[in-house]
Design goal:
about 15% strand, TIM Barrel, alpha/beta, eight-stranded parallel sheet, 8 strands, globular
Length: about 260
């Protein structure tokens, strides 16, 4: 396994206008991180010349652009068919952008009216199916993260993927993003057989370098047991340490475990 960096790890610096996507790629190179996971809302311009320049800068730094985390493009499980199909169309441009950048996937959320989980599963299957039809042949997979609501119910999320039955639809298990009543370790174990990426969410670190909220050795044993061999992405969301320090601490911890 290799270590990557999720752009969201630097969101405070981004919103303070202290960095941008190009600066984040530079940070990956400086920190010896060889993979980068982008966020769609951080793009200053999705125009072709910018995308080619971004890819060039990443290649010069020895950084592989892995995936794009997509938000704010509509609900793929919306109760209204027209709206969920519109959401699928809205995501198409990110499939195209991922293909230009050489990314292997985009990460989507599954949202909608959750009052009837069975009905939402059917609706989401249609929304994702429509997007998968568009992405067919591009080399870009579609990933769903446990990101709140029904997506953080691992049994429901796995049942959605089983219903769609596409080899190009998978999970992006996040070590966090589970409600208190869900056992995060059991949940990640359920999601790992479908995983095409992994997000090592972290918040803070003790004097021994261990993550204080999540048992990282246990999580990484689960990841390994699933036979996963891709990138593990640092997603630092802590507040005590500056973001770069948190990333360095997460990298040091993961290096001991992979």
């Amino acid at each position: 396994m290799k270590i990557s960096l999720a752009a969201w790890s630097l969101h405070r610096m981004y919103f303070a206008r202290e960095t941008d996507l190009l600066g984040m790629v530079e940070a990956c190179g400086d920190l010896g991180i060889t993979g980068f996971e982008l966020v769609n809302t951080f793009f200053p311009s999705p125009q072709y010349l910018y995308l080619r320049y971004l890819k060039q800068r990443a290649e010069e730094r020895g950084v592989e652009l892995l995936l794009i985390m997509c938000d704010a493009e509509g609900d793929l499980g919306d109760a209204e068919r027209e709206k969920r199909l519109l959401a699928a169309r809205n995501h198409r441009k990110w499939v195209d952008i991922a293909a230009v950048l050489g990314c292997h996937a985009i990460r989507c959320n599954v949202r909608g009216d959750e009052s009837d989980p069975d009905a939402m599963r059917e609706r989401a299957a249609e929304g994702f199916g429509n997007l998968l039809d568009y992405a067919d042949g591009t080399g870009v997979d579609i990933l769903i993260e446990n990101h709140g609501g029904l997506s953080s119910d691992p049994s429901w999320l796995c049942s959605l993927i089983d219903l769609v039955k596409s080899p190009h639809l998978g999970t992006l298990p996040d070590f966090g993003n589970f409600p208190a009543e869900v056992d995060r370790y059991d949940a990640v174990a359920k999601l790992m057989p479908y995983a095409k990426a992994v997000s090592a969410k972290c918040y803070d670190f003790g004097s021994d370098g261990a993550e204080t909220a999540i048992d990282f050795p246990r999580m990484m044993d689960i990841v390994k047991a699933a036979g996963y061999s891709g990138y593990v992405g640092i997603e630092y969301e802590g507040e005590r340490l500056p973001e770069r320090e948190g990333i360095v601490a997460a990298k040091a911890l993961l290096e001991r475990l992979i």
